[in-house]
Structures are given as structure tokens and as C-alpha cells.
Amino acid sequence: AGNLAWRPPGPGWWHRPFRARPSPTGLLAPVHTLTLLALGTAQGDLLVVGRDRTYIDELEASYGRAFVGVLLLTVGIALALGALIGRRMLRRVSAMSDTAAAISAGQLSRRMPVRGNGDEFDRIAQTVNEMLERIEALLGEMRRIGADIAHDLRTPLTHLRRRLESARAHPPAAGTELDTLLEDALQEIDELLVIFQALLRIARVESGEARADFVAIDLGALLTELADAYSPVAEAEGRHLDLNLQPNIVVLGDRELLVQAFVNLIENAIRHTSEGAHIRLEIHRAAQDFVASVADDG
Known about the structure:
Structural class: alpha+beta
Radius of gyration: 50 Å
CATH topology of the largest domain: Heat Shock Protein 90
CATH superfamily of the largest domain: Histidine kinase-like ATPase, C-terminal domain
Number of helices: 5
Helix content: 55-70%
CATH architecture of the largest domain: 2-Layer Sandwich
Order of helices and strands: EEEHHHEHEEHEE
Transmembrane segments: 66-86
Domain HAMP: 87-140
Protein name: histidine kinase
Distance between the termini: 131 Å
Strand content: 15-25%
CATH class of the largest domain: Alpha Beta
Number of strands: 8
Pfam families: HAMP (PF00672), HATPase_c (PF02518), HisKA (PF00512)
Shape: rod-shaped
Largest sheet: 3 strands, antiparallel
EC number: 2.7.13.3
């Protein structure tokens, strides 16, 4: 408290430089800034209240420097983490891109890398891998069906070719001989068409398209019918056709395909066994499944 060497011009806020008294050693004190509030009195004088702001300004400057330092440190850490995460993401994207390029080049066994993190990249990779497995399975089925078609059609086509080559080398006379030749050729062509149609039906069944058309089939009754039909053929060839069936075994399936399959097996057994062989048509249970077989001892 006391009088000031400087009088504010009037009431209000004022800022004034201020130097403290010299120290006993004679050193001058630094210049500080006073913040003054001047108030008028009833007598017409001024009441001035002031405070040294130097320490407050220094504290605010320290806070500012600390804030800037923390801000710069936060920005630096964020940039470093962003760069690290970006590099990891780029590596994953690059790995997935390389895998996709390899798959496009024909390596269908390749799969998208999955790290097990459960993130978006893993979910995308798992979905793509499931799609690739389905595509690979379908292509495998196509290759297998193509091989089956080639195998099943090779023998009839070879027979038909030989028959036609023989006819070209030794042309039959018009009449019964020519009619017989044409009838045999047409019959072999019909057999080829039946085989081809059966293979297409098998492909539809394996793809799931034809499963809605399945019907209940009594396997015992089906094999009994086939045995009755082929017993005379087997006896004429010197073979014996035996039955060993369990009753009441019913399955869902395509009757025509099952008949075609069993007919092929029975005809192969009659054709490729020695005279006196026994050909057995059997049905038995195995755990929760049924097993139907055509076996022979020769």
C-alpha cells in the first residue's frame, strides 16, 4: 500500500511497467508488469489496486510450452503409429494381391492369407477362400466328369468306328446286310446317348440340382428285378447269379441312375469272369449306412 509515482488518467484497467527496489548488492531488479484497477472515490481521488502479473505470465508461458511439447509428442506418436499400421495394412493388401494374381494365373490351390485376428481383412479372406474352395471343387468335378465321359464313351465309339471302317472296306450289299449294319450302328449310337445322358444326370445329382426329384427306392426289390432280368443271360454265359439281400432297405435316389449303375456292374461281371463264376448281389447294413455291392469269385 502507498502512493504511486504514476497516476492513472482515470478509472479503469491499466498496465504499467514496474521495477522493484535495487537489492542490497546494488543489482537492478528485472522490470515487471503491473496490472492496475483504478476506482474513483467520493472525494474525487483514485483508489488503485494492482498486482504483479510477471509470475502469472511466466506460468502461462510454461503451460503454453508444455502444451506445445505434448502436442508435438502426440502428433509424432500418432504419425509413427499411423505409419506402422499403414505398413502392416499394405503388407496384407500386397499379400492378398499376390495371391489373387497367382490364382488368376491358374494356381487354384492358393488361398488368401488369414492371420486369425478376426478383422475385416480376415473376414474378406475367409469369404474368398470359401468361394475358391467351391470353385476348385466344381472344376474338379468337371475334370472328373470329362474323364468319365471319355472313359465310358471310348469303347462304344471304338466299336462303332471299327464297324464303319469294316463297312467301308467291305461295302455290304443293299438289302438285309445293309439294314443290319445300319441297325447295329444306330443301336450303338443310342447306347452312347444313354451313357452321355446318364453322366449328365450324375453331374446334376452331385451339384444338388436333381436332389429335389429323388424318390424312395426299395433296393431289395430293385436288385431282385435286375437279378430276374439277368439270370438267363448269366446262365447262358455259364455264370451263376446269387442274391443275398436284407429286406426293407429304402433309400432316396434317382431310380434310372441306380439301375444304370447296377446294370453296368452286372454286365461287367458277366463279361469279365470265367465260366462257372458266382456273381453275388448283396445289400447289408454298415453302422448307420447301407451297402449294396456286386461281387464275384472269378
